[in-house]
Amino acid sequence: MIRQVEVEDSDGRVALEALRFVVVHSSPLAQQQTQASTAAQAKEAAAVLAHVKPVPAQWFAGEADAAAAIAEYEGRGEGRRGRRPHPWRYHAVRYRVVAETRRTRRARRGRPAQTEPPPTEAGYRLVVEVTALAKLEEDHGWAVLATTVPTEACVDSEILHAYQEQNTTVEPGFRWIKNPAAIAPVWLEQPERIAA
Which residues have a Cβ under 8 Å from the Cβ of 143 and sit 6 or more positions away? Predict the structure, then answer.
């Protein structure tokens, strides 16, 4: 796929260039992503189970209270500040309010009459539906390479080969970025040096 984008050269000039995208599938990367995805799904399934387990046990006298509880579970409750919590990545969790009746204790002591119905109260309960989202394994292992080199100068296989060659040429040069020394503190005391 080719798109026209603005590209700045080493002299600072901006020109409109054709940006070519090369999509590559990697089996080792697909296997690695599948394993990571499977582990993440299992971890999230346990977290979802712990999250929804106490929900059905709650009883609400009014429908508004039940709706407020749903808003709280979904991170939309009153008084929430900052960013909303992220939804579940591998599961869809839906809440709904159900009207029910339940038996209560008798107000008076003693044995009730056989014709007397058992005391009940009306209220609302939350029902949780959890659905595992399907993640296709065919989605794993895809990488996109972008280049301004035209097809006439370098075909897709050569672009892929040049990208893979970076592991022996470019990557070792940037190895220092990936160690703790890259984020070590810089000792600057003078304001003009800090501003620079």
Answer: 23, 24, 25, 26, 29
Closest CA to 135 of 86, 88, 75, 74: 88
Q: What is the pTM of this model?
A: 0.53
Task: Kindly give, in sequence order, each residue whose CB lies less than 8 Å from that of residue 146, ignoring residues fewer than 6 positions away.
Answer: 19, 20, 21, 22
Pick the closest to residue 127 from 22, 26, 56 (CA basis).
Answer: 56
Structural contact between residues 48 and 40, judged by C-beta atoms closer than 8 angstroms: no
Which of 69, 45, 88 has the alpha carbon at shortest distance from 126? 69
65 closest CA partner among 81, 78, 54: 78
Distance CA 145, CA 38 (A): 26
Q: What residues have CB less than 8 Å from 5, skipping those under 6 apart?
A: 16, 17, 19
The pLDDT tens digits of the residues spanning 16-72 come to 888 888 888 777 778 888 888 888 889 999 988 988 888 888 889 888 888 888 888
List 102's β-bridge partners, or say none. Answer: 121
